[in-house]
């Protein structure tokens, strides 16, 4: 068994920042990641980091823009923390050597981004994430922080108290991809989940193949609620054939969107009369699809993003990477022709419920970055707000897990306080684990934490609470699951199940949603879940068995797809990125609250907790959100 | 084991996988394509006759597994992959894996040439699978693991040596002066930022190291990527003269810059177009200048 004070799961922006922060507090910290850190998808972020650094800007303006962008579903303490801490964290990156783009006076450059009242998006070309990731990895190397790379964390070691809020996390179970070895990792102080996005729930996404939401899925099954999962951001400018992202920076620099008629539709059809192309992402994505649905799309599929008028010099200086991406992945020369773009899944606003110190309702279990929901982004994330979230909340989680006193959190976690239960949601199928009446084998394939698969029950009810024993038991459970998957030699394979799931989600739980489609998706998901009971891994090898890893990931995608869809069905209003055909207005009287979903040992329960609009010095009054 | 295997026609047995499904409209989107493929496959499983294959190409892939019977002896497998507009080598590998053989193993993640996971030896040259269009390649397309690195399995190579070399050059910012503090940046001129720009694009894919004959013969040679990393800091004006001197001393050694014989193979294969050889040459000049200073 490996043992450290703090374990960080994931080696992207949030994970690296958390590890550095914990290390600075004197903790013995290790990073466990299924990729090598420099392979993480933070490296694909292009646009920049919002930070109020300059004369004329201040954190309160950043907070206000973020609250408005969230469509009043972000929590003020989280938003204000982000806006207050971002300048220091951003300059910290510079002080660690990050090669930001520069002004003539040698200071870092900032540019306009969608939904911002000040040009505060701090950037390094159109490859800000790449530089951020590498700069922080350099600091990890400098500090000698231990990295277990290509180790796949497949479960958490959490005590089995009945009430999730009484549970404690003592570590993780990880599988060495290179050798097939399964090991327990004990964390003396805390485990920080920083596993990133879940874009693989969809088939057209800007996310990496590795973005399978492992953190949220594991935390959910361990008893932490998932928050606001229905809010999925579809980025308006992705390349049609691959989903590769074309940065909002293109529009920030002055790029223009045209439909097939050559009309500048953001203005022509009144989607955003003031901000046009630089309206918030949800607004632009809906506008594009509306154009396509009204017969004004190119090849019935996409619209054009034109940056030719910016001139070669400016494009090469600030957006050179975009030229490479358009050329390599769409065969288009951005200097000579407009680029085809359409909306693609980009970011999950929801995630693991945490407070502003990154802590979940389970003691010792933290989350930061895209896998977490603090909630900063509410129902829609502004461009340039993901990277500051990684460094601000990554650092806070790292410090807190290492024992630093960050003060009492204002955001509460777990099923306590002023909560409201959902009791009337009409679902076509029973969501959650396949019923316990299936064969024993199937429950094993399903990944342990399903209902009915309770060690404590088998042992006559003695709850396991002691740290070492908790880790040992979890290791045994994972060994059984993985052995089963490897030894079984008939059944279905994950690839077709994953494809069915992605297809249904892209068809039914996309930018435009309606009740019928959402119910269809729930049926499809349940079908995939049942089929997964018979899944097997055809590669018998212990060496670099990606078949096995993808099979385990697919189970995670099933749970997350269901969480997204349940939230989307329950929320009968239109807010931010969540649009419902039958409910075309924002319903503040009813829906200024977070959608919470608890796994509840395999029988998911929906409940709600109020949004916090009271900030440090003021209360944010919901206003109509227009751009 | 090493990737230095003989040509497949001399030694390796070949296993063939044919597409049992029909070709689609040439410009169908990925999603349509996949749905149609899967529908066709389901049909063929249920006994319906598979339509003859049209417009497919042959993908020859290196296979090896140290512990699985039948794969311990390296071989090439052939896969028939339908052509599709815009298809990359990575797309073709994924198609082969998901359609024919889920044990086919390769690293990949971002699909957009920034994570550096899928540097491969494609038709005799180091390239990123995701960045290489099938339409640009002679057929059959031959995919092998990066040469000069130990093969872990199929197309996966051991990257530890590459990482060790990257870590050996103090790959982190070390400014002479204390941080300016109080939300202040170190100042850097746009010109200096431009000077280091290309060097900061490295994605650690290892293509350069694999293409370098010198690195193949000298395990201690730092290699092009690590020297480029040193260049990135040595040329960054924010670090200062003392640190630059220190960095040049690290480079100015037997297994450092002087090993490079300017064959330009690294520069030719770099997927991010980093002028690696030029950077190495510039460090040589800087090292010479520094040595002269002390005479």
In words, what does this structure look like?
The complex is a heterodimer of chains A (627) and B (295). Chain A is of the alpha/beta class. Among the domains of chain A are: 2-232 and 346-401, FAD/NAD(P)-binding domain; 233-345, Alpha-Beta Complex (Flavocytochrome C3, Chain A, domain 1). Chain A contains 17 helices and 22 strands. Chain A has helices spanning 13-24, 59-69, 76-95, 128-143, 214-222, 249-252, 265-268, 281-293, 312-330, 386-401, 440-445, 455-458, 467-487, 494-508, 515-532, 546-570, 588-591, and strands at 2-9, 29-33, 49-50, 110-111, 121-122, 146-149, 151-158, 169-176, 182-193, 226-227, 232-238, 256-258, 303-306, 339-348, 351-353, 365-367, 372-373, 420-421, 512-513, 579-580, 593-598, 605-610. In chain A, the strands form five sheets. In chain A, strands 1, 2, 6, 7, 8, 9 and 16 form a seven-stranded mixed sheet that branches. The radius of gyration of chain A is 23 Å and the shape is globular. In chain A, 65% of the residues are buried. Mean pLDDT of chain A is 94; it is low at 436-443 and 448-460. Chain B is an alpha/beta fold and 295 residues long. Chain B has two domains: 14-157, Ubiquitin-like (UB roll), CATH 3.10.20.30; 160-293, Alpha-helical ferredoxin (Fumarate Reductase Iron-sulfur Protein, Chain B, domain 2, Orthogonal Bundle), CATH 1.10.1060.10. In chain B, 33% of the residues lie in helices and 13% in strands. Chain B is built from ten helices and eight strands. Chain B has helices spanning 30-45, 89-99, 160-167, 190-197, 207-211, 213-217, 224-234, 241-251, 265-269, 276-293; strands at 14-17, 56-63, 75-82, 119-122, 125-128, 141-144, 151-153, 156-157. In chain B, strand 7 and strand 8 (156-157) form a beta hairpin. In chain B, helix 7 (224-234) runs antiparallel to helix 8 (241-251). The radius of gyration of chain B is 23 Å and the shape is elongated.
């Amino acid at each position: 068994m490996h043992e450290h004070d703090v374990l960080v799961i994931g080696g992207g922006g949030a994970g690296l920042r958390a590890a550095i922060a914990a290390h600075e507090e004197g903790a013995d910290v290790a990073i466990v990641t299924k990729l090598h850190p420099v392979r993480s998808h933070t490296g694909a972020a292009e646009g920049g980091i919002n930070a109020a650094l300059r004369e004329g800007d201040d954190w309160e303006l950043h907070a206000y823009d973020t609250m408005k962008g969230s469509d009043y579903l972000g929590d003020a303490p989280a938003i204000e923390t982000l806006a207050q801490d971002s300048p220091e964290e951003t300059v910290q990156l510079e002080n660690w050597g990050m090669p930001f783009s520069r002004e003539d006076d040698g200071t870092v450059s900032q540019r306009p981004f969608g939904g911002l009242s000040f040009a505060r998006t701090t950037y390094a070309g159109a490859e800000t994430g790449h530089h951020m990731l590498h700069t922080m990895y350099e600091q990890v190397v400098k500090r000698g922080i231990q990295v277990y790379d290509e180790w796949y964390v497949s479960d958490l070691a959490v005590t089995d108290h009945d009430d999730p809020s009484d549970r404690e996390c003592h570590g993780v179970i990880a599988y060495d991809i290179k050798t097939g070895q399964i090991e327990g990792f004990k964390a003396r102080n805390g485990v920080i989940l920083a596993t990133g996005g879940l874009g693989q729930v969809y088939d057209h996404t800007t996310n990496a193949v590795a973005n399978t939401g492992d953190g949220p899925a594991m935390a959910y099954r361990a008893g932490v609620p998932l928050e606001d999962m229905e809010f999925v951001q579809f980025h308006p400018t992705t390349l049609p054939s691959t989903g590769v992202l074309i940065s909002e920076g293109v529009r920030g620099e002055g790029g223009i969107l045209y439909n097939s008629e050559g009309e500048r539709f953001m203005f022509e059809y009144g989607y955003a009369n003031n901000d046009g192309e630089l309206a918030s992402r949800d607004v632009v994505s809906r506008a594009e699809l509306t154009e396509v649905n009204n017969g004004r799309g190119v090849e019935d599929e996409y619209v054009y993003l034109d940056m030719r008028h910016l001139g070669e010099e400016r494009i090469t200086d600030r957006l050179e990477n975009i030229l490479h991406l358009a050329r390599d992945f769409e065969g288009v020369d951005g200097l000579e022709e407009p680029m085809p773009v359409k909306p693609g899944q980009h970011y999950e606003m929801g995630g693991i419920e945490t407070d502003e110190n990154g802590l979940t309702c389970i003691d010792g279990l933290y989350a930061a970055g895209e896998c977490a929901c603090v909630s900063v982004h509410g129902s829609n994330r502004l461009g340039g707000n993901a990277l500051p979230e990684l460094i601000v909340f990554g650092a806070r989680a790292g410090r807190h897990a290492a024992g630093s006193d960050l003060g009492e959190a204002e955001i509460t976690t777990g099923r306590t306080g002023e909560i409201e239960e959902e009791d009337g949601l009409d679902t076509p199928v029973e969501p959650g684990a396949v019923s316990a009446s299936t064969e024993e084998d199937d429950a094993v394939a399903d990944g342990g934490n399903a209902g009915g698969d309770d060690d404590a029950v088998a042992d006559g009810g003695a709850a396991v609470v002691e740290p070492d024993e908790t880790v040992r038991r979890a290791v045994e459970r994972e060994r059984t699951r993985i052995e089963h998957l490897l030894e079984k030699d008939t059944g279905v394979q994950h690839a077709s199940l994953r494809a069915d799931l992605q297809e249904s989600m892209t068809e039914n739980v996309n930018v435009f949603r309606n009740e019928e489609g959402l119910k269809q998706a729930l049926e499809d998901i349940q079908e995939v879940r049942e089929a997964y009971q018979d899944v097997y891994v055809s590669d018998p090898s212990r060496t670099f068995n990606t078949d096995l890893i993808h099979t385990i990931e697919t189970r995670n995608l099933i749970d997350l797809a269901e969480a997204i869809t349940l939230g989307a069905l329950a929320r009968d209003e239109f807010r931010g990125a969540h649009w419902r055909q039958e409910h075309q207005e924002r319903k503040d009287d009813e829906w200024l609250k977070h959608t919470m979903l608890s796994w509840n040992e395999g029988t998911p329960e929906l409940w709600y907790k109020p949004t916090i609009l009271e900030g440090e010095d003021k209360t944010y009054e919901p206003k109509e959100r227009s751009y | 084991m090493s990737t230095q295997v003989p040509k497949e026609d001399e030694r390796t047995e070949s296993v063939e996988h044919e597409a049992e499904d029909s070709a689609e409209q040439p410009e169908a989107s990925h999603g349509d394509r996949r749905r149609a493929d899967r529908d066709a496959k389901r049909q063929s499983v249920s006994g319906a006759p598979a339509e003859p294959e049209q417009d497919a190409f042959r993908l020859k892939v290196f296979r090896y597994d140290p512990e699985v019977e039948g794969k311990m002896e390296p071989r090439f497998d052939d896969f028939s992959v339908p052509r599709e507009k815009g298809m990359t080598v990575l797309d073709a590998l994924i198609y082969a894996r998901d359609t024919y053989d889920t044990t086919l193993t390769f690293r990949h993640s971002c699909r957009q040439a920034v994570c550096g996971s899928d540097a491969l030896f494609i038709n005799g040259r180091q390239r990123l699978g995701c960045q290489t269009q099938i339409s640009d390649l002679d057929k059959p397309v031959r995919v092998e693991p990066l040469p000069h690195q130990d093969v872990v399995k199929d197309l996966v190579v051991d990257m530890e040596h590459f990482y060790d070399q990257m870590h050996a050059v103090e790959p982190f910012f070390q400014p002479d002066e204390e941080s300016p503090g109080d939300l202040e940046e170190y100042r850097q001129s746009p010109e200096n930022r431009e000077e280091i720009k290309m060097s900061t694009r490295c994605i650690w894919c290892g293509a350069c190291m694999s293409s370098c004959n010198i690195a193949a013969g000298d395990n201690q040679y730092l290699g092009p990527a690590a020297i480029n990393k040193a260049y990135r800091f040595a040329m960054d004006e924010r670090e200062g003269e003392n640190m630059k001197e220190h960095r040049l001393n690290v480079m100015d050694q037997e297994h450092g810059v002087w090993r490079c014989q300017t064959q330009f193979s690294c520069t030719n294969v770099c997927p991010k177009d980093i002028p690696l050889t030029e950077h190495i040459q510039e460090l040589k000049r800087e090292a010479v200048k520094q040595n002269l200073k002390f005479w």
